[in-house]
Amino acid sequence: MRSTEDTVPMSEDRLRQIFEEGKPDWLLRPAKETCTTDDIVRLLDTQGYFDLLKMTYPTTREAVLERFEQEKLIQKKNGSWIITNLGAILFAKKIEDFDVLSRKAPRVIVYEGTSKLKTRLDKPGTKGYAVGFEGLLEFINGQTPTNEVIQHALREEKKMFPEIAIRELVANALIHQDLNESGPIMIEIYSDRMEITNPGRPFISTDRFIDEYQSRNERLADLMRRMGICEEKGSGVDKVIIEKIAFALVISTAVYAML
Fold first, then answer.
1. How far apart, in whole angstroms, are the C-alpha atoms of residue 169 and residue 189?
2. Number of H helices, E strands in the chain
3. Domain 107-258: which CATH class?
4. Which of the 8 DSSP states describes residue 177?
5. Which part of the chain has CATH 3.30.565.60?
6. What is the DSSP string of 134-164?
7. What crossing angle do the helices spanning 218-226 and 129-143 adopt, rounded to 10°?
8. pLDDT tens-digit series, residues 49-98
């Protein structure tokens, strides 16, 4: 491509964008085709959808399918149903049932110490992002290191990382990943830190994370916002920083009280 007076090689990201032009949004592509009504209910957690939106489960299966079709989680084609990538990635009962999602499940790795030399645990997610989100957070929080502090003359164990910060960072990693790239969301836990990464380069400059918001995957973000998983207003990084500062102050105060 032209750059000032010269031509330069295109980056892999730019080439991928060109090749993807004209194709349907990844979220609306088929994850599984020629599905029956029974297949939809067997493969997708339809109850979880209505629970997360705090809606009463419909009395008929037809009403369930109608709602899912309106949300573009499924599509009608030639007398059968297609489960879209959007429907599968959010509501799959088992991600392994969808070949296209085999590399999209979040993966939690816990290491011994501060390096990758020794792995204590390596566990991939098994459910769709929406129906598996709370379970994923519970699992991560159960693996994070703890610090022992004294408050009000009582010795207590405190997690090294605030739960709200973990929630915001994991939700952002799920929503803002580049779905056209392969690779899972990685949550790597060390004895002194946690690293959360997702496929693709940031959609906005890293020095604008605090005061700018752009969603890479609008349909995914909209549904997850309505389900209370994210806010979709650019406040996630702010919350992480505020919570981490407040958390550090609590630990520092407790340590000072011990001296």
1. 14
2. 9, 11
3. alpha beta
4. S
5. 107-258
6. HHHHHHHHHHS-EEEEEETTEEEEEESS-HH
7. 70
8. 999 999 999 999 999 999 999 999 999 999 999 999 999 999 999 999 99
